[in-house]
Amino acid sequence: MQTISPSPNPTLSLKSLFSDHKPLIRARPYSSNRALKRVVVQCVYRRDSSGGVGSNRADWQSSCAILASKVVSQQQDTEKTGNADITAVNGHKTLDLVPIDSLPKPLTITDLSPAPMHGAQLRVAYQGVPGAYSEAAAGKAYPNCDAIPCDQFEVAFQAVELWIADRAVLPVENSLGGSIHRNYDLLLRHRLHIVGEVQLPVHHCLLALPGVRKEYLTRVISHPQALSQCELTITKLGLNVAREAVDDTAGAAEFIANNNLRDTAAIASARAADLYGLQILADGIQDDSSNVTRFVMLAREPIIPRTDRPFKTSIVFAHDKGTSVLFKVLSAFAFRNISLTKIESRPHRNSPIRLVDDANVGTAKHFEYMFYVDFEASMAESRAQNALAEVQEFTSFLRVLGSYPMDMTPWCPSRGD
Ligand SMILES: O=C(O)C(=O)C[C@]1(C(=O)O)C=C[C@@H](O)C=C1
């Protein structure tokens, strides 16, 4: 698969993104392969003297499962929740985050610097270019935010770690295309906390240069998730086209416009059509009308878990004796009536294969996994604390990725459904 970088600009200065900020000094090398530290969860959710779970920030932070490598940083609660300049973007209410004539270029790895910058608005990193669904998700999660495009998921993580952004909003799964594996791997490699989730109805369009007809097309380009979410419809439309993956949906639209490609269409949002001057050849081409992508919000600090509204908690665990632990772990939740909303496994990159020698039979080679589980409970609830204390007994590695409010916004199918 060919990968087209939507906006190559290795020398970009962040000054162009934040005109009121000082120019950045050059990036310092960033080490992304920090050793994973085993986490002790038992001592994590301490009770206070009254028997309840500590409810202030200091309690929660001191008991957070990933204290071991936490960056000392200052919480910035600068979110604004007032009504901003809301417009319909791709059928969803979201912010018109950037003026069309001055689109910011995505951050690249060379733009990253540890220098903190201070502005009035919450700075939210997302992967892609303006018009990407991730930008709309950032606007839904943080109305009024200053959305910062990044060329890679990893850059969005680092932008938060280095104080260039206050939050990152990243996709983790789609109802049709499944998990975005890269972000599961990055959640483990980095030390950010999940502080929220948003679910965004995704309404895809087929975009081409003005005057181009479907019959002229020889290829369709888009983010791999978008290609997979529209696979059946592309075939039904009778398009005899090659599919090519690019970094993000809006980047595909921008690429067509910048290169004046008359044989190529993009799968992207209606907003991307507006931003890059393309026409909509077909509207609502996702294979299922209720196509939804779930994004998580990431921050340097965890939020204090509460019990006055529905919370979800995300964990990741592994066991050095293999997958046999899975049943025991799941039963720790089942016995406490805690529903799981998601389970995902990824290769255990530190020890991907376990050899089991049996003199009579030979050597079995088992693959090893990291298991990611989301469950419907807050870490402020004793049943969740008890479940995790039990899980910790069965596992050799356990980390709480975050305990955060569930997205309970009313169901709102994408435009045209
Ligand atoms: O390419 C974009 O527009 C994105 O925001 C990325 C992304 C993804 O990674 O799944 C987000 C939502 C849609 O499911 C398709 C693509």
Automatic annotation (TrEMBL):
Compartment(s) where it occurs, according to its Swiss-Prot or TrEMBL record: Plastid, Chloroplast stroma
Domain ACT: 314-405
Pfam families in the cross-refs: PDT
One of the GO BP terms on file: L-phenylalanine biosynthetic process
Gene Ontology molecular function: arogenate dehydratase activity; prephenate dehydratase activity
Gene Ontology CC: one annotated term: chloroplast stroma
Transmembrane spans: none
Protein's recorded name: Arogenate dehydratase
Prephenate dehydratase domain residues: 123-300
Keyword Ligase attributed: no
Record keywords: Amino-acid biosynthesis, Aromatic amino acid biosynthesis, Chloroplast, Lyase, Phenylalanine biosynthesis, Plastid, Transit peptide
InterPro entries referenced in this protein's UniProt entry, alphabetically: ACT-like_dom_sf, ACT_dom, Preph_deHydtase, Preph_deHydtase_CS
Gene source species: Tetracentron sinense (Spur-leaf)
Statement: the UniProt record of this protein carries the keyword Lipid biosynthesis: no
Annotated function: Converts the prephenate produced from the shikimate-chorismate pathway into phenylalanine.
Pathway noted in the entry: Amino-acid biosynthesis; L-phenylalanine biosynthesis; L-phenylalanine from L-arogenate: step 1/1
Catalysis: reaction(s): L-arogenate + H(+) = L-phenylalanine + CO2 + H2O
Enzyme Commission designation: 4.2.1.91
